[in-house]
Specification:
With 364 residues, this protein is of the alpha/beta class. The protein has helices at residues 15-33, 46-52, 58-66, 89-99, 123-126, 166-182, 197-210, 223-232, 244-256, 301-313, 318-333, 352-363; strands spanning 5-11, 38-41, 69-74, 104-110, 130-136, 144-152, 155-161, 186-191, 217-222, 239-242, 265-272, 278-284. The structure holds 1,4-dihydronicotinamide adenine dinucleotide and magnesium ion. Homodimer.
Length: 364
């Protein structure tokens, strides 16, 4: 049997710095747990532009399509701001998402108890929080036609169209139900069926797909009420599924319940491949952080947690993912903090590699 394949695209800025720590973790799982990946590395974003004149070479795209999972660092930086829109580093990432047809974006909001004080909410509201927002990523108002700014009589009118087909709703709903089955079997769907026809259809289709998942307790909530409930008592939720626009807002909101950008992983999943695994891209939520790049200050945890998501959702290694998360929890409980996890009076931060090494030690 061949080993599962993992394509690593470190990208720009702090991307390569945090990815170097993930490489150590991947090596640890190979050496100590016998979980061996066929790892290859390639360029994306500005790094690819510098060499190829394009932010994603066709060969890299083909490798991504063939890989069992792709792990990406971050793209972009001030050096590339002058480039034409068509070759900007971000276009590399957008091409990956589009051509892999990654319609289901998973954004966890998970509270590490050692960081509960870091939240803007009361400690008991967030302690132990572990929820997942599933955002539809390839359709909805960001893509619907007609769109544009038009002249109407003697004034301008800006138009965007919220548009969802039944099959687009059904496939993201299915991915959310599958996720709920692996978690607490509780799914809340959010839309605004009270004022939007696309929301009425969303609710109908999610309910229909739910008939295939009788074990999952399905509820529906208007997205504005959902925003209130997320800040009031987030632990009432387990998995939330919603459209592209509401998901953009609600996933940012939920993520910030628990702390720093340096802690936030994500997964974007597509249709199952021939081997049953979904097409998958894992990446931290943060960008290339040019303000701290090259200084060893970046927090590698967001990228390491993205790898934990890959273990869980692409490679069926939920227990090993939990082992990695527990190691991170321990390191944080022991007091290790990168600079982004410290207040102004915080003491001495650990470096990017210091944090990676501490997590390795905790794994041992
Ligand atoms: P950013 O996420 O790169 O940085 C925002 C702030 O958070 C900065 O102060 C940064 O130092 C800090 N930060 C981010 N990640 C951190 C980490 N792991 N550890 C410690 N501190 C961290 O967002 P920004 O500044 O808006 O964008 C910078 C560049 O990144 C731009 O070129 C932007 O286009 C690109 N970008 C790329 C993304 C991606 O690759 N997915 C996402 C967001 C932005
Ligand atoms: Mg956003």
């Amino acid at each position: 049997m061949t080993n599962p394949s993992l394509l690593i695209l470190p990208g720009d800025g702090i991307g390569p710095e945090v990815m170097a720590e993930v490489r150590k973790i991947i090596d640890w799982f190979g050496a100590k747990r016998g979980i061996v990946f066929d790892v290859s590395e390639d360029l994306v974003g500005g790094a690819a532009y510098d060499l190829h004149g394009t932010p994603l070479h066709d060969d890299t795209m083909a490798k991504a399509q063939a890989a069992d999972a792709v792990l990406l660092g971050a793209v972009g930086g001030p050096k590339y701001d002058v480039l034409d829109f068509s070759v900007k580093p971000e276009r590399g990432l957008l091409r990956l998402r589009k051509e892999m047809d990654l319609f289901s974006n998973l954004r966890p909001a998970q509270c590490f108890d050692a960081l509960a004080d870091f939240s803007s909410l009361k400690k008991d509201v967030v302690a132990g929080l572990d929820i997942m927002i599933v955002r539809e990523l390839t359709s909805g108002v960001y893509f619907g036609e007609p769109r544009g700014i038009f002249k109407e009589g003697n004034e301008r009118v800006g138009i965007n169209t919220q548009r969802y087909t039944e099959s687009e709703i059904a496939r993201v709903a299915r991915s959310a139900f599958e996720l709920a089955m692996r978690r607490d079997k509780k799914l809340c769907s959010m839309e605004k069926a009270n004022v939007m026809e696309s929301g009425i259809l969303w609710r109908e289709v999610v309910t229909e797909v739910g008939k295939d998942y009788p074990e999952v307790e399905l509820s529906h909530m208007y997205a504005d009420a959902g925003a209130m409930q997320l800040t009031r008592w987030p632990k009432q939720f387990d998995v939330i599924v919603t459209d592209n626009l509401f998901g953009d807002l609600l996933s940012d909101l939920a993520a910030m319940l628990t702390g720093s950008l340096g802690m936030l992983p994500s997964a974007s999943l597509g249709a199952p491949m021939a081997n049953g695994r979904p097409k998958a891209l894992y990446e931290p939520v943060h960008g290339s952080a040019p303000d701290i790049a090259g200084q060893g200050k970046a927090n590698p945890i967001a990228c390491i947690l993205s790898f934990a998501m890959a273990l869980r959702y692409s490679f069926d290694q939920g227990e090993e993912a939990a082992r990695l998360e527990a190691a991170i929890e321990k390191v944080l409980a022991d007091g290790a903090r990168t600079a982004d996890l410290m207040g102004p009076d915080g003491g001495t931060p650990v470096s990017t590699s210091g944090m990676g090494d501490a997590i390795l030690a905790a794994l041992d």
